[in-house]
Specification:
Blueprint: H1 3-13, E1 18-24, E2 27-35, E3 38-39, E4 48-49, H2 52-72, E5 77-79, H3 84-91, E6 95-96, E7 102-103, E8 111-119, E9 125-126, H4 128-131, H5 139-143, H6 146-150, H7 168-174, H8 180-185, E10 189-191, H9 195-198, E11 208-209, H10 213-219, H11 221-229, H12 232-235, H13 239-242, H14 249-262, H15 270-276, H16 282-291
Parallel strand pairs: 1-9, 3-11, 4-10
Antiparallel strand pairs: 1-2, 2-8, 5-8, 6-7
Helix pairs in contact: 11-14, 14-16, 15-16
């Protein structure tokens, strides 16, 4: 193993990551994956927040550390502009699933991918056409249609295509679901969905976990509303959970109200919804009206 990859390997091995590398057009891409343990479905009065985002946040900062480490050693490292999933598959780190996620036998699909680009060829070389060739889905996916049947928004095509504009995550990114069907389909998912992964055969060997005491306080619907109503300052306790890019109080307030509307104890949140009607953003008002009795 050359010096560049040895430096990366030493760091990643200490972090419990799996990694591989592939070279494209004179540059080498080190693909690494950090695993995570998913939360169990929360009890009434709490929102689901996908644990993927904690791992993704960790992976982001780990990539920055690797870039700095390589730079100090005289290598030129840079941010990858290619598709992470294509590079993961091309490097041998994972394989494609029907839902267009990438998995491997150890982590299943419960992993956050990151990539460090390094100038120079230090691994197996492939062409750009080889990198972006149409992927073949994993062997189990050929006969399994569980994710396709369970997706509440029918996002997953028969042959593995994926309609991202219909996905719950697309609505969460926008802070608005567009119509009542999409809003209901989001269920109690504040951030992330996880349905297609929760029942995937490639994840059946993985454990889930209960919320910690800290998470129980943070993910309680009353706590979420109070935090996001307070604005950016109120969002700060969620920085390491969601990542800085997602700390948008108006969007998160809208999503919290939507979860309240879908909760089994919806009527408990009428005072919050009435308060939210004074908010200047129409997305917040629309979500608040879903909580109120008049929305039924």
């Amino acid at each position: 193993m050359n010096d560049a990859l040895s430096l990366v390997a030493d760091k990643l091995n200490n972090c419990g990551a799996l990694f591989s590398a592939v070279s494209v057009e004179g540059n080498t891409y080190v693909v690494f994956a950090l695993p995570y343990v998913q939360l169990e479905a929360p009890p009434v009065g709490y929102a689901f927040v996908d644990s993927y985002y904690v791992a993704s946040n960790r992976a982001y900062f780990l990539r920055k550390e690797l870039v700095s480490l390589l730079g100090e050693a005289g290598f030129t490292a840079f941010e990858c502009k290619h598709s992470y999933k294509h590079l993961a598959a091309a490097s041998g780190l994972g394989f494609w699933l029907r839902n267009t996620l990438v998995a491997n036998e150890k982590f299943g699909s419960r992993m956050a991918l990151e990539i460090v680009g390094i100038e120079g060829v230090f691994a197996k070389e492939i062409t750009l056409n080889e990198l972006y060739k149409t992927p073949e889905i994993a062997e189990k996916c050929v006969i399994c249609t569980v994710c396709r049947k369970l997706c509440p928004r029918n996002c997953i095509g028969e042959n593995g295509g994926f309609d991202k504009d219909k996905c719950t995550r697309h609505g969460q990114d926008n802070g608005f679901f567009g119509d009542e069907e999409a809003a209901k389909a989001a269920g109690i998912n504040l951030w992330g969905c996880d349905i297609c992964q929760r029942y995937c055969p490639y994840n059946k060997h993985l454990e889930t976990r209960e919320m910690t005491e800290k998470e129980r306080e943070l993910f309680r619907l009353d706590s979420l509303f109070e935090a996001f109503w307070a604005g950016k300052k109120g969002c700060e306790p969620y920085r390491n959970i969601l990542g800085g890019n997602y700390l948008r109080p108006t969007r998160l307030l809208t999503l919290t109200l939507n979860v309240m509307a879908n909760s089994a104890n919806k009527n408990d949140y009428i005072p919050h919804a009435e308060k939210a009607l004074s908010h200047p953003d129409e997305r917040v008002k629309t979500a608040a009206n879903r909580v109120l009795p008049s929305a039924e």
